[in-house]
Amino acid sequence: MSTPEIYPRVLFITPHAFNKVSGTGITFTNLFKGWPKDRIATVHDDAMAVTTDVCDMYYRLGNGEIRKFGGSFTNQSAIQDDTGLISSSQPSGRMKALQAVKKWVFGDGLPQRGILTPELKAWIEEFKPDVIYTILGSNGLMDIVEHVQQRFDIPMVVHIMDDWMSGAFKKGLLGWVQRRRMLNSVRRIIEKSSLRFSICDAMSEAYSERFGVPFEAFQNVVNTEAVVPYVTDPTVLGNPVKIVYAGSIFEYAQQQSLIDCCQAVAQLANEGASVQLDIHCPPSHISGMEEHFVVGPGIKLHGPLTDDTDFFSTICSADILLIPANFDQKSIDFIRYSMPTRVPAYLASGTAILVYGPSFVAQVQYAEKAGWGLVVNERDINKLKDAIIRLIRCSYLRVSLSESARMTVEKSYNTILIRKNFKAALSSIIVDKGDNTH
User: Fold this and answer.
1) Is the Cβ–Cβ distance between 170 and 143 less than 8 Å?
2) Number of H helices and number of E strands within the chain?
């Protein structure tokens, strides 16, 4: 008689829940795909609409659980648009003035504290979790993580997606107070955690050294068999040549470098090249800045690709895929050890990849070392244009990049193996406790 598989009852406490838009939401969805739904519950304060294909038990944190100093002065009415994003209405003149004062005094955000309310406690008790899974978050959310762990005395798993704490709370008259509190919470949670995950090997190495405890890398996965029907011949180009960027656009990650790419494409088009750039992202990520991206008629803005069929067909039918990373120090501090969620799917597509960013950022290093991307590691629009022209003119280069990408995805992103190892890691801490959960 076979031994039943162990699936711990996982309680997510996270600022980003399961969805098909954000990098974290997509990563959660792909890593936990196939997990029994009755063994996943999520406590969150995500502004993104959640999905229910992997998890359907959600508790949204409110003002009772996360209490902000002066929160009543900054509340705005919210609306949900057709991409699932919750956006705020335009602030009044008085509200803008209050927000300016808040930024001057507190920097990144208002002081807050997290409360384990009776309602949240009862909800968690009903779920009966075996393990807490968290990517950390605001000071208030980290309070809740610690309160829940202390109250229920269950192991924790922490998964770091970005080096956000390196740049947090460095502005504002009293920012240093919140920064000290944030760093203390991060260190306590990491030290108490039974497992510590990162998003890539470079982050594991850096965080192991920083915190003096081991980290293991787990990032997004891709089902290569699901991509195969959409793969096209890299030697054949469209007319016009189609360049595609699909993903998030953040000021402190890739915004300026993507704008550089728009400038390069617009200039090439003005010089007679038949080329276009399609950008797929949540509208809120570029709201009010559209004119910085649409600098020529060949640049088109689209909503996020939330359907797998649309996503895979779009990236496979493209002639060039973009991975931009900003060159400024604030962005480098944030993304130094990050690995974009879209990388596995990009690699599986076999489409030629153009990487634009500084060499000491992990995603750029990875492309250079593994040979799956043509890298421009200086902020120079002329060099960016030259790289695009090289990719257009040289079919051998496109084929070489395509082959390296597919070899990398088969070696490093085996979905079955990664999910098996991921589940085994989570299950191990339940077995270590002597629990017979299955």
Assistant:
1) no
2) 16, 17
Two tokens, residue 344: 């596995």
Global confidence as pTM: 0.86
In CATH, which of 2.60.40.10, 3.30.450.20, 3.40.50.2000, 3.60.130.10 is domain 224-411?
Answer: 3.40.50.2000
- Rounded to the nearest angstrom, the gap between the alpha carbon of residue 45 and the centroid of all alpha carbons in its chain is 16
What is the per-residue DSSP string for 329-382?
HHHHHHHTT---TTHHHHHHHT-EEEEES-TTSHHHHHHHHHT-SEEE-S--HH
Which two three-digit tokens encode residue 315? 């990236």
Q: Does domain 10-221+414-432 have CATH number 3.90.1010.10?
A: no
Answer whether residue 431 shows pLDDT above 70.
no
How many residues are given for the chain? 438
In this chain, the answer to whether the domains covering 10-221+414-432 and 224-411 adopt an identical fold is yes
Indicate the pLDDT class of residue 69, thresholds 50, 70 and 90.
Answer: confident
pLDDT in tens, 227-272: 999 999 999 999 999 999 999 999 999 999 999 999 999 999 999 9
CB 333 within 8 A of CB 327: no
